[in-house]
Amino acid sequence: HKISICPADGRDLGESEPAAVAGPLCESCDVFTQEDGGVVITQDLPKAQIGDYVIIHDAGAYGRAMASNYNTHPFPAEVWIEDGKHSLITPRQSFDEAIGGERFPG
Questions:
Q1: What is the pLDDT of residue 61?
Q2: Count of structural domains within the chain
Q3: Which one-letter DSSP state was computed for residue 40?
Q4: Is 54 among the domain residues?
Q5: Which of these is catalytic: 26, 39, 50, 61?
């Protein structure tokens, strides 16, 4: 996947450095910078800070259409980018929305 970093505070990103990008799950397949066969590779990316946006272009099945709340992780936001303009097409799901269909005894 092509990956970009969008700074939340508008700062200049500076130079790129080799980085592996992986999600917060406990699965070895939750790495977005890997080759066929699961070999982890790096992409040159600017250093991200907490709160920045990580853009995974052409996400395919990682998008909302095939998403699940596996390990109770809320769905990410989806943004449509065309001709340099962006539009929020699916807002980020809150934790309460992610567990909204669950029922707990007692």
A1: 65
A2: 1
A3: B
A4: yes
A5: 26
Structural domain span for residue 17: 3-58
**What pLDDT is attached to residue 96?**
94
In a domain, 48, yes or no: yes
d(CA 24, CA 8): 20
Q: Does residue 26 have an active-site annotation?
A: yes
- CA distances in angstroms from 13 to 9, 19, 32, 46, 56, listed in the order given: 10, 14, 21, 6, 17
pLDDT tens column, 34-49: 888 889 999 999 999 9
Looking at the domain assignment, is residue 82 inside a domain?
A: no
pTM for this predicted structure: 0.70
> Does residue 15 belong to any structural domain of this protein?
yes
- Residues of the chain below pLDDT 50: none
Q: Are 64 and 75 in contact (CB under 8 A)?
A: yes
Give me the percent of the chain exceeding a pLDDT of 70: 96
Q: Find all residues with CB under 8 Å of 71, minimum gap 6, and list them.
A: 25, 26
